[in-house]
Amino acid sequence: MKGDQQESEVAMKNTPDNEIAAALAGIRNRLDTLASINTENILIPGGPQERYHQIVEEAYTALVLVSIAKWSLWRGLRRRSCY
Question: What is the pTM of this model?
Fold first, then answer.
């Protein structure tokens, strides 16, 4: 999972489109990991449940990046429509 996070961080530095795509991929990846936690594997040592809070924080960070990019695009479109 750590490699995925580093790849996402590198991709997010490229362009706004790459930033949004990488953040959305990060959110989906974290949600898939959380969805994989079930009654059959929740007590297995080293499973995703041990990183639950970290995974939720990573997903939230990615969601904030998407939100910032969305508002940035919205402001740009609004600015263009005013002139």
Answer: 0.60
Residue-wise pLDDT tens for the chain (83 aa)?
555 555 545 544 556 678 778 888 888 998 898 898 888 888 888 888 888 888 888 888 888 888 888 888 888 888 887 65
Domain assignment of residue 47, given as a range:
2-82
Q: Which H or E run includes 1? A: none
HEC string for 35-77: HCCCCCCCCCCCCHHHHHHHHHHHHHHHHHHHHHHHHHHHHHH
Contact 18, 65 (CB under 8 A): no
Domain count of the fold of the chain: 1
